[in-house]
Amino acid sequence: MYANNMANLMDLLCPKPLKGSEEVRKLNINMDDKVIRGMTVVKDGEITWPPPANVTKTAAVPTENGEKKMTNEDKDSPIEKKPSVFSKRVFDLTTVGELCGLAFGAFFFGIVAAYAHITFVSQLLYFILAGFLGYYLIWSVEPALFSPLMST
Fold first, then answer.
1. What pTM was computed for the model?
2. 12 with 35: CB under 8 angstroms?
3. Are 148 and 3 in contact, with CB atoms under 8 Å apart?
4. Pick from 18, 54, 17, 50: which is nearest to 33 by CA?
5. In this predicted model, what pLDDT tens digit does every residue of 30-65 receive, in sequence order?
6. Rg, the chain, Cα only
7. How far is 91 from 99, CA to CA, in rounded Å?
8. Helix ranges restricted to H, 25-140
9. Residue 70 backbone class (left: φ over 0; alpha: ψ -120 to 50; beta: rest)
10. Angle made by CA atoms 123, 124, 130, in degrees to the nearest 5
11. 42 strand-pairing partners
């Protein structure tokens, strides 16, 4: 995710030249671009922080109780999607998809445990546990804690 964000940032800072031209990519700090303007602190020895309000404003229109107002575009949304079978909750604890993944993982780990060396099995177990831990830690972070650049 970080590498993707950095690649997108480099595409913003070093835009591709027009097709057919002999120019190479070069650094272009375009202060008219909202993303670049919002993250630039100093340019040409001049402090540009904080960015103007038109750069940092959000598209959501707050109401008195803090909820977003529904616009006509929101009301005329396309056909509602039918929820997947795998998204159905089981015993109000987990989804069917998570249970299927857990069953597949247990089956795979059982096959590996039966035929692999014990050192490999223990290292694989630690890797799987680290994957679950990382998944649940990362996805429990509120999106508001990420910067606008990280959330794209």
1. 0.36
2. yes
3. no
4. 54
5. 888 888 888 888 888 888 888 887 777 766 666 666
6. 24
7. 11
8. 34-39, 53-56, 72-75, 96-115, 118-139
9. beta
10. 90
11. 47
